[in-house]
Write a structure and sequence with these properties.
Two copies of one chain form a homodimer. Chain A has 172 residues and is mainly α. Chain A has nine helices and no strands.
């Protein structure tokens, strides 16, 4: 994990070399592949184990839900606009798509936390009449996160206009 | 492509063998890997080229948007509930996550069509006052598709309750 972290920092995801990681860790390449089926799985493990910091979800509560949600979604979009971050999140996505085990761990240690924070912020906004009532805030938060990941997958960075469209959908 | 289609039909995605595909195609394994970097890319190509039929988006227009959208989302969920379909779509997702080129082709030949059909159905519903007005229907449709793909990625099949939550979010 330390060797992978260092190689990620030095070479970036696209040029990451399993050979260099194996050498730095004093192991053979085959040993690496015995534990991780692909470069994606190795990188996902590194993120899941906290060696590469994943973005922490901090959603402000200023009292104005639309502003707070917009700021959070824009920060998410800005994070994904960095090519290296986009590569890491795409690697996690690919690893989760390929492996049930990675998917479950990815969900439990990263996504569920973001989802819960977003749902809590939406709940508080519903109480103040700022987000549409009578709708599952959990479904809303999955729709917001899903829309952002979808944009990452299809290589269409979320614009401010797109983010405002999402906000119109949930805000009252 | 024909050899991949036949091998998919015979063995399914999880047990798909590049060796058997190469043999059936009269080529070497290395030749296959020269063209497709991974099993996911090979399978994605097969779907993109129409050798394995992708689900056709037919969204009814009965005049009742909520019923039509629910039927479409449930059919999507039922499709993904088949393990072989889920494997194929996850393979496409992984291939799109890994490759810019696959991502763009995947979007242009498959996803954009679904998105356009869904947006058109939402537009007609807005005109009848059945879907929330003043919101970008394009953003809504990406949120609905994104939410379903997100559920596939985190291995939580969309329940009827989840689908109703999504419908509450967009319907008036």
């Amino acid at each position: 994990m330390e060797a992978t972290r260092d190689e990620l920092a030095a070479s970036g995801y696209d040029k990451l070399s399993i050979d260099r990681i194996a050498t730095a860790a004093g192991a053979g390449k085959q040993t690496v592949y015995r534990w991780y089926r692909s470069k994606n799985e190795l990188v996902a493990e590194c993120i899941l184990e906290g060696y590469v910091p994943a973005r922490t979800a901090v959603i402000a509560d200023s009292g104005e839900a639309r502003d707070d949600l917009r700021a959070w979604l824009r920060a998410f979009a800005d994070f994904l606009a960095e090519p290296e971050n986009a590569s890491l999140i795409r690697a996690c996505t690919a690893a989760a798509a390929e492996s049930d085990e990675v998917a479950v761990r990815f969900y439990e240690s990263l996504t569920a936390t973001n989802e819960a924070a977003l749902t809590a912020r939406l709940d508080s906004a519903v109480r103040r009449g700022q987000v549409r009532a009578g709708t599952s805030t959990a479904a809303m938060s999955e729709a917001l996160i899903g829309a952002m990941l979808y944009r990452l997958l299809v290589r269409q960075p979320p614009t401010d206009e797109f983010i405002d469209g999402l906000l119109d959908m949930v805000c009252d």
